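Input/output pair, single chain:
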Amino acid sequence: MFGLGAPDAARLFDPTGKIVDSLSWTAHAGVTYGRCPDGTGAFQNTAASTKGTGNSCGAIASQAWPGLDDVAIVDGTSVFGGNLSGLIYEPAAGGAPAVLWGARNGPGSIFRLLFNGTIWAPDQTNGWSAGKGLHYPDGTGEPDSEDITYAGTGGAAGLYIVAERNNSNNGVSRNSILRYDPAGATTTLTATNEWNLTADLPANGANLGLEGITWIPDAFLVSKGFFDEATNASYNPASYANHGTGLFFVGVEASGIIYAYALNHTANTFTKIATFSTGFPAGVMALQFDRELNYLWAVCDDGCGGLLATFEINTTAGSATIGRFGLTRQFNRPPSMPNINNEGFALAPQSECVNGKKFAYWSDDSETGGHAIRRASTTCLPLP
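Output:
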């Protein structure tokens, strides 16, 4: 059931007028409501809309972390003062070093972190030493930057953060994607663009909104026959003017739902392309697309034991969900990773693989023990 009011109810009658099923709800379904297991279980948010066929319940057994249990702390002590909530790894290129970009939700800031051989520490040049404070396009406010990504090949072309509210008015939802130009030596950044998605999303608390963001290139989406729910056809990038070369995927904490958007960078308008569920019991806190192995990762925090999941586009001919992202694997956190408030997740590139392993990074919003960034090795091979 989708598109009905919240709160609302629906009843199913047989030809004699007898009620055979019913459901009442207080909030919109993230995708649809359906019985899981199909036809017999309790109603829940389903992973996809599957009209005329079985419900897509998305349940899957958790696997062990696909790498080594070599968890290590890789930041200084009390560097961020808490609230480091998002990460994205920018590989070294053209003589420039690798950068681990971090988003802090309070005070809303972006950090440019460089590896000194032992830990990731704030860049000491160009105004980055304490992170750069963020403002909305009019120069006011303080977005609570929850996660961070970049489009194309690097952050120099622009950084995008997702925020669920303005810290200067933190009792009101303001679910936005904002773009920032990181160039220059200023100690604050004013957004070049804002796409306020609040009215397009189900209502949630001001601290339960957008938490994760990642960018996926058009070339990949088209190659997999990605289904565009706005046009009810295969995704065609030419249908969306001035959107760049990819789509932005965002995750909502309250529901665990992921939404894909085409963002018009000229008019600051947007079109919702897809909606699907992570199935996490405590919401999605971070998103990361591995641009080389082509897995969409979603991450939950300590509310569900630090679960991670991967999603892939279904390419099975004749499937009711062909062209749509679906849950393919669910992983437990590495055994020695404490069950902490990890709200950010990033992957190193394939170029850094050693003996078939590369690093994954987590950021702990609570800065447990005075540290926010931890890493562990993961496989460089396609996931089993």
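The chain has two domains: 1-59, 62-379. The domain at 62-379 is CATH 2.120.10 (Neuraminidase).
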